[in-house]
Design a protein that fits this description.
The structure is a single chain. By secondary structure, the protein is mainly α. It has one domain. It contains three helices and two strands. The protein has a two-stranded antiparallel sheet with strand order 1-2. The longest helix is centred in the middle third of the chain and has 36 residues. It is elongated, with a radius of gyration of 23 Å. The N and C termini lie far apart (75 Å).
């Protein structure tokens, strides 16, 4: 129970745990829920923790996607098509 509480708190505020650790915990929660041998209270508790982890992962992915988009926008250059290693001339 303490581990679950720590994971949930980490996703809801303060420094977020590494994306990979969140995903691993989420996988374990899914496995436990799919096994179906939990009490109702434990299942609901794990479901809530899973939602918090999913939100945290989604937020990290959105932030990473935004950062990559910014980096790509700075690095974009006009595309120059080539034909067999030589530039195509449109002059005639």
């Amino acid at each position: 129970m303490a581990e679950q509480q720590r994971q949930t708190e980490a996703c809801s505020g303060g420094k977020e745990p590494a994306f990979e650790k969140q995903m691993e915990r989420l996988r374990k929660i899914v496995e436990m829920l799919e096994a179906g041998n939990l009490s109702l209270d434990k299942g609901v508790s794990l479901y809530k923790e899973g939602l918090a982890l999913a939100r945290g992962c989604r937020k990290q992915l959105e932030n990473a996607r935004h950062e990559v988009r910014i980096l790509n926008d700075d690095a974009l250059e006009a595309f120059q098509p080539e034909n067999d290693g030589q530039r195509i001339s449109h002059d005639g």
